Amino acid sequence: MTANRISPERLLARAGGVSGLIYSSLPVVTFVAANSVSGLPTAIGSALGVAALVLLWRLMRRESTQPALSGFLGVAICALIAHIVGQSKGYFLLGIWTSLLWAVVFTVSVLIRRPIVGYIWSWASGRDRGWRDVPRAVYAFDLASLGWVLVFGARFMVQRLLYDADQTGWLGVARIGMGWPLTAIAALVTYVAIKSAQRAVAASANAAVNASEDASATAGGAELDADAGRD
Prior knowledge:
Layout: H1 8-14, H2 17-38, H3 40-60, H4 65-85, H5 93-111, H6 116-125, H7 135-164, H8 168-177, H9 180-230
């Protein structure tokens, strides 16, 4: 299968694009603002209302339904948790613990030498998993995966500290400030790692072809020598 070209634009598109990053920030800003003015019930209703409007807007624009629906569902779950906890800071619990989960997943993938970025690349580009046999490619994907470990780990530690300190407003700032900006940096590191891995895989494939050709040439020369000896 011919691999699709991986570019920064494609990586951003798979993350929902610039508009998707903006849309994901709107419910958070609305929640924090409404909570500071009118309290938790209004904040929950406002965040859900904005999320619903974003969903409707994206559907009207015939954009991909998956990011729109998943974004609305995420806001609904966060709002439900805040309602159950009875505190506005509960709105951020899902993101805090999800960050920890992904930090652990990416860390484990590196420790067992199965960097998850490599598998995501295989899926996104339509390639097989032959990169696992190329040490330089595995190393590049290890570094990219560690970059995401730092992102998710930083999000968890900072936001957990703010959560324990009951700083709902700063939690909103951290959610946005440590959201798409850190994602963009990690995506750039991932892009560089992918390019490095692609070069390593290509070099390995060329080396294998050259070795095969050399072996064939050697075998052919031996046959000619044998034929000459019989003559």
